[in-house]
């Protein structure tokens, strides 16, 4: 009798796991399709002469990405805040999160630089497409994108993957999902690196706010750098995209920079592990303290 009960419980557990995996995959596919369809639809409209500010179509695309996750969660009758991990964090955790963001810089920059040996810098290519107000564009890149993508990937995919796999497997798979969601090789490379760190940061704090803060800082920094470069080259009568592409042909320079960043990244990886433990300790997260 006990053996039968155990077998039924085990069978039910496997069924629940299978359903969870199917739900994650199906929802993620809808996220990617929404991104592809909406991005191409707006590109087609703009190419045909209709002027649409970046902050408008950028917001619509990001909302399209996150809506499948929200709809799935609502249909399951789950709490949005609990399911996605919207738990308050301490001010000390915020400070450690900023430190973690700084330490992550060499790792994702290394991936960005090395990827440009093979493909162009997508951020620079996209700079000319950011029509409308500078503040509106920044708001979409730094706030809307960070919030929507973190809910979709860390809040939905990673949190659910943790229930059916180990922490590091869930972090790795969700990182790949995050990379693929960007739909280009350049951003995919460094997004995967960041996605893995974001997932571990959320595990350490027990909250999605850590990755949202990191994502916002990184996107803000990247946006400001590209805008400054755009203004500087424009005032000098130089095309930023052409200049970046010309520099990219100097493969040896990119390879050297990438290797230097890789060496620095090894040291930063050890420091990142220490900071993750500090974040876990700040939030009294004993499970994460033991892991890190």
UniProtKB/TrEMBL annotation:
GO terms for molecular function: endopeptidase activity. The chain crosses the membrane at residues 21-46, 52-74, 94-114, 134-152, 164-184, 190-209, 221-240, 252-272. InterPro entries: CAAX_protease (IPR052710), Rce1/LyrA-like_dom (IPR003675). Keywords: Hydrolase, Membrane, Protease, Transmembrane, Transmembrane helix. GO terms for biological process: CAAX-box protein maturation; proteolysis. Residues 135-220 form the CAAX prenyl protease 2/Lysostaphin resistance protein A-like domain. It comes from the Bacteria. PANTHER family: CAAX AMINO TERMINAL PROTEASE FAMILY PROTEIN, SLR1288 PROTEIN. This is Membrane protease YdiL, CAAX protease family. It comes from Butyrivibrio fibrisolvens DSM 3071.
